[in-house]
Each structure stands twice: as structure tokens, then as C-alpha cells.
Specification:
With 672 residues, chain A is an alpha/beta fold. Chain A is 27% helix and 25% strand. Chain A has a 5-stranded parallel β-sheet. Classes of the chains: A alpha/beta (672), B alpha/beta (297), C alpha/beta (150).
């Protein structure tokens, strides 16, 4: 027989005004198993809690029901109180008679009856509560950072500087990300490379950072504090430990006509290449799709077509037979910092929901470029040496039209959100253009100028007021090529006039989208993402860098469009979260997780299919001799978040969610 | 399969040739058109500019009649009619309240099940049958396919082709043996209903459209809307006053072009009804007849 | 439960059980409370972590124990605290609906809704609408009548 104590709170007048608390206490006192039932003005006050403590000791209570406010308000308070009184804190539950009763009803009789009912449910439920102990999980004090752009670099450096080891995985041959492609950065116009490259070198030289460039995350297993990550090191065709980055191989490579990814297609590179001179690590990669040797081998040619790079390499570092290798890393936390790609306006899109711009010729007009391409044109290290020259004929464009919100904020194109950075970088582009092309006219079509940020509005104003950029509020309805010029038909919504502009070049501020493949990575990590592919944060305001999977954090533009200061701030925030996590050697978790009765489990693994976290594993039950008896489900307590979906789906009722067992719920319903 | 036919007011009179050519082409290609009995005005311009409910209820009545005739699809050759019918269908499908309001007005058993097609869609969907009947392919004929504003817009309502880069009319023209040119103004507005109220604007727009078609090398402009036709054909005389020499650009309904390729006589196709002579085009069709003679015109 | 024996519709006070998730609807109901939104006093909430935890048997059991109506409510699709528990619930109840009919429970007695943590007003609407609907349907007596026959 249970020994339950019921404590009914008046909450001053809040409950007492409409609920007859004394009557509730009396009615509950008559319930079987209840040995003590009282009401009091303020249960959460010190004397109120003292009453609970005293009663636990005096009446040897094995269950405490507090009929008061919402458990979201004071469950923690009262559980702490009973724990201090010497019984397990999970033997305390609350009945919500304030938010769900006294505050929403006026009829005293009805409200009192409802309060009695609600308390009775909990009394019946608590009879089946059992003591639960927090789950303790060991922590591997080592972090994985996925993505080596500015966000990943910052996170890796902050964690490493905090004393923990970091594995930094970057899929491209070099770290640096999109920031390394930029010319100058807003709102200070400092050179992007100048501020970034020292940090890249710092990563390379840091004793606690293991850099894995040209590698991708293949598999993620485990849970917070205990992840096992398999990383695929893609074959460079170059032995990284022998190569000294002299660059001779690139000079002799006969195929130098490949569009350079780093120059956004505007420059050329050889088949064996480092993406840019300041690349980290400075080790070349052979582009197998374009290398004559590999193309020949794919055709089963009898002889290798070209081995010029191998011949010239003094260090004998070229290794044509190199294969992808898989490495396993144990880490305790993961940062996702995979960054963005730019939306293209082409007819063919990678997602059905997204469509291109037929009105701009689906990207078939030469001299219509995107923002990153303009960055490369403006960059001193770019294909034109920093001169603004249009791609088609290398002429200096005298009229350049900049279009903002291309794709962004347009549900018809499938991208409803604002890409955030475009207003600022277009203003920067007009300034760079004004400085570099004297007498040139920049015309910007904008929807709104969103320049929120320190020094941002001043910056866009400078573009307009001091750098002669003509800002037109309106959209461009159509663009087509007419001889040497691009006809741009737009509308100035402020004057109400249509505008026909003969442009020499058009720059599109195309939307920021998450990197391709983000969905499959998110699935490997069991983190959720929105319909655009951006990783969801655990809470948009209060947990902005955590994900719904414990131990996985998010930084930079893979979570939403972000500029550099934002991405860096997020990265440092993830580092601080992770260093906090790593500050203890063991983690404690609420024990409200699912548990499998392996005796009755039939091994249908319905639970595996419905679990949102991949927390259910296969477990082999063996006899003493090691013979397999059956395979059953087993819940990993470190991963389970306690939703209970497995339990509702289990045909044999072999899995129970602690704290919400069938016995507990049915007891409450039976009290109806 | 039977296809409902909603001629609308234009095809009943000012664009009679659109009606006759469509009927001839449909018969030849084995499409069975059945006119909706007692159809009413689609409510274009005046209807939808004044009263939203009226602009939905008017076409809804026609669609309800089509449903009573057990028609699953209705073709509305006029782009404005098509737009009104398709818009009404779309809005009623999206808005249950509006739908019940309209059925209340109609006092008919109406489920809004009829598909609305325009002429480009109808022809494109019947390309194999059309190709089979082409005996006089219009080789060497360069045409500019002019969609105008309403045929493919708005995307939510039309959806049969790419709104900003459509290809259905080009496909049909290619089937007739003609060569569509690439040009810039095929989706621009001709001025539509402003033909009488703001003639100056219509002339300016028509000039821009026709000059662009000519610059692209087109020998004729193919249209799928009676309004576009009249604006581009009828106004060429006025346009000529602003150009160095007359444009002399024949404007053909897409059904006339297909009819020519099928060897249907120019009288049936109503080619004599145009202000700008289509004679050079007709000549191309008759000269290039295939050896296999047609049985009937 | 005296009211239950009365066949007089006006004096009939429906008893309604609500199975709600902890994160959205329970918190939404809390918000209705802090906003002092007055609503029908007929609904009794049973808190669960997620709608994904709700077994259709809970609903049948509630009817068996004298409920006249049941509300199931959780996070909006795509907003589930546990990512996808509400999707599983939605599928489960799409199928269970037929079973309820087969078990003699008029599906009109069961309300499925999504109420987020910020929709206190919507929760009040759900409570009032369901109460009014069940009031109209009258007491759920099929099971008690069956018991009486046995």
C-alpha cells in the first residue's frame, strides 16, 4: 500500500479564489493510499516546502503530489524538496490546478470538482512511479568540426585554444571556404585574404588540431560525449607526407583549361592543382575527371597518356594509384559548419521546389554574373588581377546593373527567406566598381535595403551618397541580349516609371542556399533541417547554436544566411558550449528514457523505424555457451530523448518510457 | 475523346477565322470538339475589373454547363477566355467558401471538375495526331511564336508550360514544318484591351514586338489570342506611319499555320480576313506539298 | 458522475479527456491559463511527452471509463519537439479513426488538433468547440449499456 502525501496550494488567491482548496485536500485525503493531505497558502514558499519535508519524514511518504501551478513552473522546485527530504525526486509529481483550472474557470463548484479530478489522476499515477537515477555518460574530450570555412576555422581554433583536441574535416582540397574568395569585406573594406590566411595557417600549425582537408564525413555513430565518426579521406593522387608544395607539377600539367572553382568559373586551372596560392594545406590534388591519365585509364587505354607531373616531382610524391581511405575518429561533440552555396538561375535545379529565372534567360546571357564572380573580378588575386572586365570580351563595363533579391524573398522561386548579406555586399560592389572604373555607373535594383548591423547602414549610405551608386527601388522584369548590350527592363516603384537600361554587365545577388548534400549529412547526424535544407537550431532564440541532437552544434551559414561576423560569433558560441560540455568528465541526464523488456521483445524492430534519434539498437541475447537465442531491441540511454513513440508503436508492449509507463498512464485514465 | 469547346465572343465574330481554322484542324486530327450549349461571356476585362464574385460566377456557369454535358476538358481558344475560365477554376478549388458561394448563385450541381485548356496546350497535347496529318510542311518558313501576356500567366493558374520560357507553341510550329526563331518579345504585352481606349500605347507596343520579330528573321508572327491578333494585324497600318517602311508582317493564328501544313484550303482557314496579307505564307505551303496527296481540304 | 445518468441534454455535463504533448499543447494550455482565457470546465488534461507516445488504447480506455469525448493535441507538423513524433501520431490516428468507429465510438467525439505553445487562444477554442460538440452528441453510453446487458 502506498503512502502518498497530497499538498494543495492556494497560490495566495490565485487558486483559492475559484477552487476550494480545503475541499480538494479533504477529498484527496479520502483516496486509498493517501495518508496525508493538507492545503496551504503558498506551497512554494520556504515554510510551504518545510511542510512537505516534514510530512515526508513524519508520515514516511513514498509519493508526493503537489496540486498547484504548472509543472513547467515548479516541478523542479518540489522534486528538489523531496530529494532533500530523503526520497527519490521522481516520486514527486504535480497536478496543475492553476493554469489548467483556477485561472480559466469562474464557477467555484465546477473548478473545485475539476481540481479534485486532476489531483486524483496524479495520485493514481504516482502509485506506479519508481525511483529513477540520473544517467551518467562518459565524455570524450575531443571535437569534430565539419567544414573549414571561417565558421569552422573559428570553432576549431577556439576549442583547441581552450585545451581540447579538434578534428577539422573539409571537403575541398583547402580550408578557407567562401571567405577566401572574397575581395574586400564590408563594412570596413579590409582585404578578406589578409584577415583570413593567418587564421588558416594557425589551424595548420595548431598542435591540438588535426586537419583533414579533401575529406568527408562518411558515417556517424554514437551519442553525446561518445561519437564514433568515420571520415573518408579522398585520394589526392599526391602523397601528402612527401609533397612540399613546390608547385612544379602544376606548371608542367598540359591541361590548363579547366574552369577554376576558386575563381567561380572565370579563371582556369590545371588538372593537378592547389585551389589558390595561399591554400592550406598547400598540397595539390589531381582532378581525376580532367586528368588525361585517369581519363585514359577509364577507357582502358593500354598506356598511361601523361605522367608529366610524376616526372617533374623531385619528392616522388605523385601517387596515381592512391585510393580513398577511411579513418575512424572518436569525439564527444560535433560542430556542423558546412556553409553555403549560391543559388543559380538556371532552368535545371537540384530541388523540385526551386525554379530558375526564365525572365533572365535562365542564365544563358553572358556577362550576367553572380556576386561571387564579381568578387573574383574585384580581387587582386583574381583572373583579371583586380580589374573589372566583363567575361565575354574583356571590355571594361561602363554601366553595371546590380540586382538584389535574386531568388531570395520570392516564394515563386521556392526561396522565401532573405539571404541577409546581399544588401551589404552589393553596396560594397558598387564602391569597388566606383573605385576601379572611373566614369562607370552602377545601378542597383533593390526591394528594401536591409542594413541592420554595426556600421552597416552608414556603409550603404556611403555607397549611395559618396560613390554615386544609383539605387532604384523596384524589380527587373526581364533581361535579354541585344547586340553588345544587355537590355534590362525594370520598374522604379518610387517614381512609378518603367526603366529601360542598356547594361554592359549585370551582377545578380543570388540567394544563399545550404551546401548540396546537407540533407544527407544531417540525416547521418540525426539533426533536423528546414525545407530549404538549413539545419534547425534547438531553439531560435535561447539555444541558437545547439541542434535537436545532444552534442551536435551548428555554426555559420548552414543554419541560415549569415555574414562573417555572425558566422564567427556562432562559431565561438559553439566552442564555448563544447568547452562547457567537456569541463566535466561525465554527463548527467534525466532518466526519462525508454527501456526494453528483453524477455518479451519479439525483435520486430518497429521501434527502430519510428525512433527519431536512432536510439534503438539491435542486441543479441546469447545463452551461456554464446549461442544466439534471439535478437532484441535495446535503447541507448545516451541517445534517447524520451518521446515515447517507440512505446506507442510496440506490438508486444515490451518498451516502456520511464516516467510515462503504460501502467502510470492507464492508472490516471482509470481514475477518470 | 470529346473536348468541350468554348468559343467566346471573339471567335464568334471578329476572329471567326480562328474558329473555322480550329474546327478544321480538330476534325482533321481527330479531335472531337463539342460546343458548350448556352455558354455565356467569360467576363473578361469588364467583369473582373468590377466585381470579383461576378468574375468567378460567370465562367463557373459555363464550366457547370460543360459538366452537365459530361465534358472532362474544355478548350478556350481565346487567351482572355482561357484566363478567366482557368482562374475561376483555380480560385474555386483553392477557396472552399468562394466555391460554395458560387454554387449557391448557380443553383446547379457543380463539382468544379472540368479541366480548362488553351489552344497551345490542346495542340501540343495532340502533336502525334497533328504530325500525322501534316502534308504540306512549311519548310523554310521562319515564324515568331508570340504568347502575349495571358497564355502562360499566372503560373499558378496555367501551369501547362514554363511561364517565362515556354515552348509549346514552338513545338507545334515545328510539327507544322516551320522554324521558330529566337526572339525577345514573345511574352510581352500587346496592349490587350486598350486597343480602343489607349491606341497610342498599343501601337507603340505592337511596333516594338513586330520589329523585334523581324530583327530575329521571322517571316510571320504566330499568335494564339484574338486580341493579340487584332492588335498586331489591324494596327500595322498605323505602325507603318512610324517606321521607315511598312513591316508587312503577316499575323497568323496558330491553328491557321497548322491548317496550312495540313493542306486545308485558305478559305476555310479564313486567311483572306487579315489586314496584312498572308499570301507569301500560303504560297510556301502549297508549293511544298508532299507527294502523298490529301483526300480532302 | 450523477449527470451522466440524466438523459436531459441541458443538464448533461460532458466529461472530456485530453491527451496532450508536454511541449506544445500543454504549454499552450498553460498560456491560456496565464492569459486568463475562460473556457468550458469539462476537459481534463493528461500530460504525455509527445503525441507519438499516445496509444489509441488510451482513448478507448478513456471512453470505457466514462469520458464522453477525447481531445488529442500536439505540436504542429514540422514543429515537433522530438522532430517526428507527431507525424507518427498523425498516421496512427488516421488508421485508428476507423477502429474507433468499429468499436462503437462516434469519431465526432474525438478531436485531433495541433496547438502550439503560443496558441493559448486556439486551445480555448478547441476546448469550447469540443465541449459544445459533445454536448450536442449527448452522453456516451454505449459501453455502459453493454456492461449492463452482460
Amino acid at each position: 500500500m502506498s503512502r502518498i502525501g497530497v499538498f494543495v496550494c492556494h497560490c495566495g488567491e490565485n487558486i483559492g479564489r475559484t477552487v476550494d482548496c480545503a475541499a480538494v485536500a479533504q477529498a484527496c485525503g479520502e483516496l486509498p493510499g493517501v495518508v496525508h493531505s493538507i492545503d496551504y497558502k503558498y506551497m512554494c514558499s520556504d515554510p510551504g516546502q518545510a511542510l512537505v519535508k516534514q510530512a515526508v519524514a513524519e508520515h514516511k511518504l513514498d509519493g508526493v503530489v503537489v496540486a498547484a501551478c504548472s509543472p513547467h513552473m515548479h516541478e523542479k522546485t518540489f522534486r528538489k524538496t523531496v530529494a532533500n527530504a530523503g526520497i527519490n525526486r521522481f516520486l514527486c509529481e504535480m497536478a496543475n490546478v492553476r493554469e489548467h483550472c483556477s485561472w480559466i474557470h469562474e464557477d467555484r463548484e465546477e473548478a473545485t470538482q475539476k481540481a479534485i479530478d486532476l489531483t486524483r489522476f496524479i495520485v493514481e499515477k504516482i502509485k506506479h512511479n519508481v525511483p529513477l537515477e540520473p544517467i551518467k555518460i562518459p565524455v570524450t574530450r575531443r571535437a569534430l568540426v565539419i567544414g573549414g570555412g571561417i565558421a569552422g576555422i573559428q570553432a576549431a581554433l577556439d576549442i583547441a585554444d581552450g585545451g581540447c583536441e579538434v578534428v577539422l574535416v573539409e571537403k575541398e582540397p583547402s580550408i578557407g571556404g567562401h571567405m577566401s574568395q572574397l575581395s574586400e569585406t564590408f563594412p570596413t573594406l579590409d582585404c578578406s585574404q589578409c584577415i583570413l590566411t593567418p587564421r588558416m595557417v594557425e589551424v595548420y600549425q595548431h598542435p591540438r588540431i588535426k586537419l583533414m582537408a579533401y575529406a568527408e564525413v562518411d558515417k556517424v555513430e554514437g551519442y553525446i560525449g561518445n561519437f564514433t565518426v568515420t571520415v573518408r579521406q579522398k585520394a589526392r593522387g599526391v602523397n601528402a607526407s612527401l609533397c612540399n608544395g613546390c608547385g612544379e607539377c602544376q606548371k608542367v600539367c598540359p591541361n590548363k583549361k579547366i574552369a577554376s572553382e576558386f575563381d567561380a568559373g572565370l579563371g582556369k586551372r590545371p588538372a593537378i592543382y592547389v585551389p589558390f596560392p595561399q591554400a592550406v594545406p598547400n598540397i595539390p590534388v589531381i582532378d581525376r575527371a580532367n586528368c588525361a591519365l585517369y581519363k585514359g585509364r577509364a577507357r582502358n587505354a593500354k598506356k598511361d597518356a601523361c605522367k608529366k607531373c610524376e616526372e617533374v616531382c623531385g619528392r616522388k610524391a605523385i601517387d596515381f594509384d592512391q585510393q580513398d581511405t577511411f579513418l575512424t575518429e572518436k569525439v564527444g561533440a560535433i560542430v556542423v559548419a558546412t556553409g553555403y552555396q549560391l543559388y543559380n538561375i538556371k532552368k535545371e535545379q537540384d530541388k523540385e521546389a526551386i525554379s530558375g529565372y526564365g525572365e533572365y534567360g535562365y542564365g544563358t546571357i553572358p556577362d550576367v554574373i553572380d556576386g561571387l564572380q564579381f568578387e573574383r573580378l574585384a580581387s587582386a588575386s583574381g583572373p583579371t588581377g583586380g580589374k573589372i572586365l566583363r567575361p565575354s570580351d574583356g571590355k571594361e563595363p561602363k554601366t553595371v546593373v546590380f540586382l538584389q533579391c535574386i531568388g531570395s524573398r520570392d516564394p515563386a522561386k521556392g526561396i522565401d527567406y532573405c539571404s541577409k548579406i546581399c544588401c551589404m555586399y552589393i553596396a560594397k560592389h558598387t564602391m569597388l566598381y566606383h573605385h576601379k572604373v572611373h566614369g562607370g555607373q552602377a545601378i542597383v535594383f533593390f526591394m528594401d535595403i536591409r542594413a541592420g548591423g554595426k556600421g552597416y547602414d552608414e556603409f550603404t549610405r556611403r555607397a549611395i551618397e559618396e560613390n554615386d551608386a544609383l539605387y532604384v527601388r523596384g524589380r527587373v522584369s526581364k533581361m535579354y541580349r541585344d547586340g553588345d548590350v544587355i537590355k534590362v527592363l525594370g520598374f522604379d516603384t518610387l517614381s512609378g516609371e518603367p526603366m529601360h537600361i542598356d547594361a554592359d554587365m549585370v551582377v545578380l545577388a543570388t540567394a544563399m542556399r545550404p551546401q548540396p548534400g546537407i540533407e544527407s549529412l544531417a540525416q547521418k547526424l540525426s539533426v533536423s533541417y528546414d525545407r530549404f535544407g538549413f539545419i534547425n537550431e534547438a531553439h531560435p532564440k535561447l539555444r541558437p547554436v545547439e541542434t535537436n541532437t545532444a552534442g551536435v552544434y551548428v555554426a555559420g551559414a548552414c543554419q541560415a544566411p549569415r555574414d562573417i561576423p555572425d558566422a564567427v560569433a556562432m562559431a565561438s558560441a559553439t566552442a564555448s558550449k563544447i568547452l562547457g560540455l567537456f569541463s566535466a568528465s561525465e554527463l548527467e541526464r534525466e532518466p526519462l528514457v525508454a527501456q526494453v523488456d528483453q524477455g518479451t521483445c519479439a525483435g520486430c524492430f518497429h521501434c527502430v523505424r519510428v525512433c527519431p534519434y536512432g536510439a534503438v539498437e539491435h542486441f543479441e541475447v546469447k545463452d551461456r555457451k554464446g549461442n544466439l537465442i534471439k535478437t532484441v531491441a535495446q535503447v541507448n540511454k545516451g541517445v534517447c530523448q524520451g518521446c515515447g513513440t517507440c512505446q506507442a508503436n510496440c506490438p508486444s508492449k515490451s518498451v516502456e518510457l520511464q516516467g510515462f509507463t503504460d501502467q502510470q498512464i492507464f492508472a490516471a485514465i482509470n481514475a477518470f | 475523346m470529346k473536348i468541350g469547346y468554348f468559343p467566346g465572343c471573339s471567335l464568334d465574330f471578329s476572329a471567326k477565322e480562328f474558329d473555322t481554322s480550329l474546327q478544321a484542324v480538330a476534325t482533321s486530327a481527330g479531335m472531337e470538339l463539342e460546343e458548350i450549349k448556352d455558354w455565356a461571356c467569360c467576363g473578361a476585362t469588364s467583369g473582373h475589373a468590377t466585381n470579383h464574385l461576378l468574375s468567378i460566377a460567370l465562367p463557373a456557369r459555363t464550366l457547370a454547363l460543360a459538366e452537365e454535358q459530361e465534358l472532362e476538358r474544355v478548350v478556350a481558344p481565346c487567351a482572355a477566355c482561357y484566363s478567366r475560365l482557368a482562374t475561376a477554376r483555380h480560385e474555386m478549388a483553392e477557396d472552399k467558401k468562394l466555391f460554395s458561394k458560387v454554387t449557391g448563385i448557380l443553383k446547379r450541381d457543380f463539382t468544379n471538375s472540368v479541366q480548362v485548356m488553351n489552344i497551345a496546350e490542346l495542340l501540343r497535347d495532340n502533336l502525334p495526331a497533328i504530325k500525322e496529318k501534316v502534308t504540306h510542311p512549311l519548310k523554310d518558313l521562319k515564324v515568331a511564336c508570340y504568347y502575349g501576356c495571358l497564355l502562360v500567366r499566372p503560373p499558378k493558374v496555367t501551369g501547362f508550360d514554363d511561364t517565362e520560357d515556354p515552348s509549346s507553341m514552338e513545338e507545334v510550329c515545328r510539327a507544322a514544318g516551320a522554324t521558330p526563331v529566337k526572339w525577345n518579345k514573345r511574352l510581352d504585352c500587346c496592349g490587350g484591351g486598350f486597343s480602343l481606349s489607349r491606341t497610342g500605347s498599343v501601337i507603340r507596343l505592337g511596333k516594338e514586338i513586330l520589329e523585334d520579330a523581324q530583327a530575329a528573321g521571322a517571316q510571320a508572327v504566330v499568335v494564339a489570342c484574338p486580341m493579340c491578333h487584332s492588335n498586331l494585324d489591324l494596327r500595322q497600318k498605323a505602325i507603318a506611319e512610324q517606321t521607315a517602311k511598312p513591316l508587312e508582317m503577316p499575323i497568323l493564328f496558330i491553328t491557321q499555320l497548322v491548317g496550312l501544313a495540313m493542306g486545308i484550303s485558305e478559305q476555310i482557314l479564313g486567311l483572306n480576313r487579315h489586314f496584312v496579307s498572308a499570301q507569301p505564307i500560303i504560297a510556301k505551303a502549297t508549293v511544298k506539298a508532299l507527294p502523298a496527296a490529301r483526300e480532302e481540304a | 458522475m450523477a449527470a451522466k445518468t440524466s438523459t436531459d441534454k441541458a443538464s448533461f455535463k460532458p466529461r472530456i479527456a485530453a491527451f496532450v504533448c508536454n511541449w506544445c499543447t500543454y504549454t499552450g494550455a498553460d498560456l491560456a491559463g496565464t492569459s486568463r482565457l475562460q473556457m468550458a470546465p469539462n476537459v481534463r488534461i493528461i500530460r504525455l511527452p509527445c503525441t507519438g507516445r499516445i496509444d489509441p488504447l488510451f482513448i478507448i480506455k478513456a471512453f470505457e471509463r466514462g469520458a464522453d469525448g477525447v481531445i488529442v493535441s500536439g505540436c504542429h507538423p514540422a514543429d515537433c519537439h522530438y522532430t517526428s513524433g507527431n507525424y507518427h501520431a498523425r498516421r496512427r490516428f488516421a488508421v485508428a479513426r476507423d477502429v474507433f468507429g468499429f468499436m462503437g465510438i462516434d469519431p465526432k467525439r474525438i478531436t485531433f488538433s495541433w496547438v502550439s505553445a503560443s496558441e493559448g487562444g486556439k486551445w480555448a477554442e478547441v476546448v469550447n468547440d469540443t465541449t459544445a460538440r459533445v454536448q450536442e452528441l449527448g452522453p456516451f453510453s454505449a459501453y455502459r449499456e453493454m456492461e449492463a446487458r452482460v
